[in-house]
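Here we describe the complex-level prediction in full. Unlike the single-chain runs in Section 2.1, the two entities below were treated as one system.
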Amino acid sequence: MTVETRGLTKRYRMGDENIVALDGVDLKVDDGEFISIVGPSGSGKSTLLHIVGCLDAPTDGEVYLKGSRVDYRDKRSLVLLRRHFLGFIFQAYNLIPALTAVENVEYPLYFTKGMRSKSERKARAQRLLALVGLEHRAHHLPSELSGGELQRVAIARALANDPALILADEPTGNLDSKTGRSILELLKRLSTEEGKTIIMVTHDLASAQRMSTVVEILDGRIQNRP
Amino acid sequence: MRELFSLASRQLMRKKLRVLLIVLGIAIGVAAVIGVTALGEGIRVQAVEQIKASHDLTTIEVSAGVSGESVTLITNSKINAIESSPHVALVAPYVKDSYVTQNNTYLAVKGIAAEYRQIHEQQLQIAQGSWFAEAEAAGTPVQVVLGYDVARRLALVEDLDVGDELVVKLRLYGEEGRPVDKRTTFRIAGTLESTGDEHDNEVLMAVTNALELDEKGSYDGLIVKVDDPAFAAAVRERIKDLGLSAHSAQDVIDEVNRLMVAVTLVLGFFSGISLIVGALMVINTMIISVFERTREIGLTKALGASDFDVMKLFLAECVIIGVIGGICGDLFGIGFSVLIDLVGKPFLVSALGGSIGANLEAGSITIVTPTILVAGFAISLVLSVVSGLYPALRAARLSPLDALRQL
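The structure predicted for the assembly as a whole is:
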């Protein structure tokens, strides 16, 4: 099992209001599973993704990644989890404008220096770009790529450190439906062919249902999964 | 490491104008410091060269040593000790006494050894008559040579010429402290050409005669000549170890060096105030850069970069700015020094005038040494890295989630 949460709760204050973003979420995601978390705005789905992605800490409850409990007070261990275990895909792509496509894919590898030689890293970045079908755009800057191409580069980048778990936050949110569908197909392929576990947050219930297991979340509680 | 700087330079390439402006800011500050320091160094070297040209650096003036209440006299044993020291070529002892003629004309008498004449061979030229011979027996007149001014004065006032004799008095103090006047007869053996220094007002005689007359038993001074100016300092130390005091033109040079280094430091420090402007520019630009790239920092941390990794990314940019600023600063500094030389020198020459001005004209009033250039480069590098520390720390401390939410 890649991910397990037990009684995950997140509360925070916004102005004078106490907001309960997550209210005792128990979620289990198996290895190689592709699940979509669907729910309206403010349902807590992004918060769940951030906590599992070690970007945010829960108020209560526990998260287990590959069977070990995440210690949210240990900053160094969070860095190492993000570095080696997790890959992120964002709605806004978040590519670095100064770097070309292939350099963007290589970027996370700078922080795992020593693990691979420079030529290995270059080759890996090229291979990942080929995997997402963009080898011919390798030396273009983000400003020269279309939305779909940008998201493909971002997916290749998420794969750079060979993470077991990929977290995608509205990856098709900025794309037209046809391009969005091709991105979802690519993610689906990653889970079936590469064995990646994928948790995606999305608005698009219809495509999510076609591609993945859907988990509905409402008011911080999971609706359809025991 | 190379990739870190390649990443940093890619980031900087995206904001060329901004980088150009900071680099200019730093470079102008560095150039101002280099220009001022080069001017100080140039004037220092000129001053030292002038001293070296007009003074003999191989001679050391030795006088009796005084420490507290006790006085170390120059005796023959001290002279022997100095003579046997390495690199000592000549030791010339002398004795100074005050005599008065019968018409109360004051005479400054100096008893000199043969070595003294050897050392001052260039200056001491006989105009009339000849050098003195030592008086052989008591009672015979003591032969003296008159300095240029003394000879003229004695000729005018007392109508004395070469070959003439004169009776003089030397005031000594008896055992019970009573003054005793001792009478002697001088015979003028010759007169000197004008030397332009203290010899014009002196009456010279053999040191053996002088010692017999004044009954002092020790010398008033020594002139020590070394075989190579490089060893002058070592010989001086040796003489000081014997309890005597020693002076040479090096003292003046040391004094000039101390003064000019202090003046240059003060001027350099104040011209360095312009560097504060450069530092503020770096801080400002880097803070803006951190704001602009907040999302990028959040992303970088989400991808597994540690706080220190993020800090390194920003500091690498500062290092590149510092290096470019240092190189430009050095180049501008050289240009600035040339400018000072071209524009400032004619002004200084006309303001100072005379021989100092003429000497300045020959050389350059600014000297840019490798040390100055290395210092200029280092200032730029340290300045931009230190200025970048706070912005880099701010970037490193951003929470990845907050940074990613930023639009």
